[in-house]
Amino acid sequence: MTDFPSLPTDFVFGASSASYQIEGAVDEDGRGRSVWDTFCDVPGKVANGDTGAVACDHYHRYAQDVGLLRDLGVDSYRFSIAWPRILPAGTGEVNQAGLDFYDRLVDELLAAGIAPAATLFHWDTPQALEDAGGWTGRDIAEHFAAYASVVGERLGDRVARWMTLNEPNVVTMLGYALDVHAPGRGLGYEALPVAHHLLLGHGLAVQALRSAGAHEIGIASNHAPVWPASDSDADREAAQVYDNLWNWTFADPVLLGRYPVEGMEQGFPTYRDGDLETIHQPLDWFGVNYYNPASIGAPGAGSATEELGGVEVPAGLPFENRPLAGYERTDFNWPIVPEALAELVRTLRGRYAAALPPVYVTESGCSYHDADPVDGRVADPKRIAYHDAHLRALAGEIADGADVRGYFAWSATDNFEWAEGYKERFGLVHVDYETLVRTPKDSYHWYRDLIAHTRARG
I need a labelling partner for 47 at 20 to 30 A (CA). Which of 245, 266, 399, 404 fits? Predict the structure, then answer.
């Protein structure tokens, strides 16, 4: 493909990953257990009994992976820091060996000319804190801020961008309301206070990072445009409930200092006056993770339902997910709707106006069950088409005045895809999980050429 999306010459091209999904070395150098270690030990929770114990062995092979990123030409690499690798018990004594690893990674990235972009929390809560209640309790927000201080003081002078949380809605809904992700609490509606504690932790962590001298602080927030399944009042009302729950409960407090439903905060048992002011910290940028929209209707009104992001939604909710017909799908069965990313950007601009800081797409990508390499090549034309279409959608919005400054492809390498184990492959680089050999896919070479083409235009 020689016809590339037309993006600004200073547009930031990146690639993303997360600690538990790639690092391995779960029992090495003083790392404590995380909720994902525990979850993987429960039979039936993860496909094929897979675990992140070895994953891509990035902990030992980070220099090789940075070399691949350097050759790819990305401006920035988004990675996450494993909280239990820094504070094995979640609080208390600092594990210097853990800090040393990220110190080496950051220096390796800088030497390669790549701006480090660090996420403080990408779902691997220390198990010791979960045993004390995890995100259901208010105290964890203070512990998270203390962790942010430790990391910020060590790396704040060299990390170019910071994210406090990755997808707090997914943690709340899939990890606490349902029993699909770690810690698998299955609390239903009783999980809603988790949302408040995560957001409070975000606000306190922003303050802690700034006090440590860190700059360029944001969040990686998952968003899905919500489409009513029909024009009926019932479907529209159900879609609004879902939209508030999935999107605006997690963005409005951060960007506007209020919840989307008036008085909602009073329903959180641990809410205190001043919490929303703490959550509503000034941000330097806002990260958007986008994969697909959701079609939502009133419960029982449709003839067919669909899993929500690969998850079977229980009965008894005021909404249900409906099939989104007419779109191609990834091998993960997610619909491919690049125009919905453009719609999301417009929605954010309209909803938040001047309160919306510059936007980065901190994740977008697709899983295809790629064939093993043949003669050193992995052909993945559908992944190329996915990223091409989504970047074209962004280019159109940027031309219309949207301040979207970068795109981080999910993911840099194939990795452990949470409850799906290793069967789903999102990477620009193929990983053979038996030998751990890395093979750049055709999409890697396409992305490299797109970056070079964009720079050459400058």
Answer: 245
- Residue pLDDT, tens place only, 17-54: 999 999 999 999 999 999 999 999 999 999 999 999 99
Is 127 annotated in a binding site? The answer is: no
CATH number at residue 165: 3.20.20.80
Taking the C-alpha atoms of residue 178 and residue 188, their distance in angstroms, rounded to an integer, is: 6
Q: Is residue 321 part of a domain?
A: yes
What is the distance between the alpha carbons of residues 42 and 371, in angstroms, rounded to a whole number?
30
pLDDT tens digit string along 238-283? 999 999 999 999 999 999 999 999 999 999 999 999 999 999 999 9
Residue keyed to tokens 């390796």 = 108
**Given CA atoms 281, 284, 289, 295 in this order, what sign does their dihedral have?**
positive
Q: How far, CA to CA in Å, does 155 sit from each of 159, 212, 325, 391? A: 6, 9, 46, 31
Would you say 285 is a known binding-site residue? no
Q: Is 122 annotated as a binding residue?
A: yes
Give me the active site residues, please. Answer: 167, 363
Per DSSP (E only), the strands in 226-338 are 226-228, 286-289, 294-297, 320-321
291 is in an annotated binding site: yes
Any known ligand binding at 410?
yes
Domain that holds residue 77: 12-456
In the block, residue with structure tokens 């080496």: 104
- Report yes or no on 3 lying in a domain: no
**Which pLDDT tens digit goes with each residue over 422-437?**
999 999 999 999 999 9
Number of structural domains found in the chain? 1
Residue 4 lies in a domain: no
With residues binned 3-state (H G I as helix, E B as strand, rest as coil), the percentages for the chain, rounded to 5, are 45, 15, 40
The verdict on residue 2 lying in a domain is no
Which residues make Cβ contacts (< 8 Å) with residue 59, sequence separation at least 6? 23, 24, 25, 28, 101
- Output the pTM of the full model: 0.97
